[in-house]
Amino acid sequence: MTRPARLEPAASSDSLLDRLAAGAVVADRIALVAAHPDDEILGLGGRLDRMPDLRIIHLTDGAPLDGADARRAGFDCPPAYAEARRRELDAALEAAGAEPERRAYDVSDQTTVRRLAELARRLAEDLADREAVFTHPYEGGHPDHDAAAFAAAAAVRLLARAGRAAPRRYEFASYHRGPQGRVAGAFHADPGRPETLAVLSTDDRRRKARALAAFRTQGDVAAWFPQGVERWRSAPDYDFTRPPPPGGCLYDEFGWAITGEVWRGHARAALADLELAP
User: Fold this and answer.
1) 104 FRET partner, CA 20 to 30 A, in 38, 57, 115, 272?
2) Distance from the first to the final alpha carbon of the chain
3) Structural domain total, the chain
4) In sequence order, which residues have a C-beta less than 8 Å from that of residue 1 and are 6 or more positions away?
5) Residue whose C-alpha is closest to residue 35's, from 122, 128, 108, 99
6) Distance between CA atoms of 91 and 123, rounded to whole angstroms?
7) Residue 167: partners with Cβ closer than 8 Å, 6 or more residues away
8) 166/133 Cα distance (integer angstroms)
9) Residue 236 sits in a domain of what CATH number?
10) Cβ-based neighbours of 241, under 8 Å, separated by 6 or more
11) For the segment 129-158, what is each residue's pLDDT rounded down to a tens digit?
């Protein structure tokens, strides 16, 4: 029996993404909005050294308030764990050959959903001089990933509403729930949404591997992701009041207080606060 052909997303023809994929130096004023320290390396670690005018904005300090992750990593409290993650980020960016401007909002891990409107307003100011912004897709992988997608989209809309220049929105592959479990380093399949695939050179892969190795507290997270490729695409106009495109949230399976339904309730409230219709 003949197997049906696998539907692949269409290739992107976006100039910025094409230049990045080719390994060119990209002088555009770029922002990267990451939910946690290490997301920037997982999503764009093979190309951070090609962005001389890069601003990285971390929404969280990577340390949940319940202290479980801190204890698992050998720390007695979330602040000590957060400080360790900051030091790991320093080492990772050095290993990646990147010297970005850095801004940290230092919200506690897993609490961003309670501050969506505040984050969007703050991010609008930090994106006002940028030509492009990369962040996570809205795919229900982690509530902070979804918050980053929301905040970037809302910030761009706030800038446009105020008549100010707004950056183009892009996203990097993170992780989400697939039919057979967690899918990392690839977008939720949608052939109608073009993406760019960057195949990393041997040197790029080694540099990214060294950067990821700096995150010693993160265990085997890097092993979830493919090592030789990175995927990016233009960000769509998500409806954050509806379930993410995969149809459900991976974090619904984690036993956390924040479920997809709870997250969307906060998103509706934030959109009303910001006076942005869904």
Assistant:
1) 272
2) 46
3) 1
4) none
5) 108
6) 25
7) 29, 31, 127, 130, 131, 132, 133, 156
8) 9
9) 3.40.50.10320
10) 264, 267, 268, 271, 278
11) 999 999 999 999 999 999 999 999 999 999
CA distance 171 to 195: 10
Residue 3 lies in a domain: no
User: Which stretches in the chain have pLDDT values below 50?
Assistant: 1-10
User: Which residues, including other chains, have CB under 8 Å from residue 213's CB and lie 6 or more apart?
Assistant: 95, 222
Question: What is the model's pLDDT at position 2?
Answer: 31
| Beta strand 168-172 pairing with 54-64 | unpaired
Rounded to two decimals, the pTM is: 0.93
pLDDT (tens digit per residue) in 8-57: 444 555 899 999 999 999 999 999 999 999 999 999 999 999 999 999 99
Look-up of token digits 């997809």: 260
Task: Identify residue 194 by its one-letter amino acid code.
Answer: P
pLDDT confidence of residue 11:
53
**Which domain, by its residues, includes 135?**
15-274
- Does some domain include residue 41? yes
